[in-house]
Amino acid sequence: MTIYEIKKKLGNNIGKEVLIKYNLGRNKYEDYKAVIKELYDYVFIVDSEFGVKSFSYRDIMTKTIHIDY
């Protein structure tokens, strides 16, 4: 999956609630619901129950995070 494809998929889901699975390493994961707020050139912003967070598109490519739409 390319960055362009990731941005397009995220863009189609702006304002919608998604489930983010964040890989903390050593078989530890953090799951939380978030709403995709904004897309920028290198990062995207989500609003979750833990506050506003930003992730890069490379986080998805390297499987640091997984998003269930």
Give me some keywords for this one.
alpha+beta, SH3 type barrels, five-stranded antiparallel β-sheet, 5 strands, 54% strand
Strand content: over 45%
* Assigned CATH class: Mainly Beta
The succession of helices and strands, N to C, reads HEEEEHE
Strand runs, count: 5
Which segments are poorly predicted (pLDDT under 50) over 5 or more consecutive residues? none
Describe this entry's structure for a reader.
- With 69 residues, this protein is of the alpha+beta class.
- It has 2 helices and 5 strands; from the N terminus they run αββββαβ.
- The protein has one domain: SH3 type barrels (Roll), CATH 2.30.30.
- The protein has helices at 3-11, 57-61, and strands spanning 17-25, 28-39, 43-48, 51-56, 65-68.
- It is globular and about 30 Å long.
Describe the secondary structure blueprint for this structure.
Blueprint: H1 3-11, E1 17-25, E2 28-39, E3 43-48, E4 51-56, H2 57-61, E5 65-68
Antiparallel strand pairs: 1-2, 1-5, 2-3, 3-4
